[in-house]
Amino acid sequence: MKAFNSVARDGKAAFHDLAAQFNVGSDAEYQRGTKNQEQVVAEFLSNFPEAKGVVSRQEFLDYYTDISMTVTKDDDFVALIERQWSIYEDEDAAVNRAQLEDLIRALRLKLKVITNHSLEEYILKKIFNDFDTNRSDSLTPDELHAMLNKLQLNVDSRYSAALFKVFDKNGDGHIDF
Fold this sequence. Notes:
With 177 residues, the protein is mostly helical. The protein folds into two domains: 2-85, Recoverin, domain 1; 97-176, Recoverin, domain 1 (Orthogonal Bundle), CATH 1.10.238. It has ten helices and four strands, in the order H-E-H-H-H-E-H-H-H-H-E-H-H-E. A two-stranded antiparallel sheet has the order 1-2. Strands 3-4 form a two-stranded antiparallel ribbon. Helix 9 (141-150) crosses helix 10. The radius of gyration is 21 Å and the shape is elongated. The model has no long low-confidence stretch (mean pLDDT 86).
């Protein structure tokens, strides 16, 4: 349902929204060059002949229920959905330890540069406060993601979610200074 909810409004998803979100990159025919993006998307949308430009939640669910019957392993089915919709069952599952360590190193380097290699607490607190846009004395997941973008560490949400879990030491949903 996460895939459907990412494009749906009021329980329905317009064809153009589905087409914009649907990832054709993992389609075998697309990879071989025998079909282009428009053809792959059109083929997918043709599975909803009664839809008339809008797919209901139930139609979407029925389609993927039918698909799931042809996939022998649950993990393979989950991987199919993740590839087709660029979503992840567990947002940080797709981030491996090495990637996370690289992101932490890059963040530390950026912070060293903007603080002129200072470890003075008041300087670090000022930077922290600059990114604490709601003035809660803590960072939310959205504030951390915005901070990464502002520091030109443009990562998608699964990386910032994984990083957030590392820094949220007490698991309360906030990063404290």
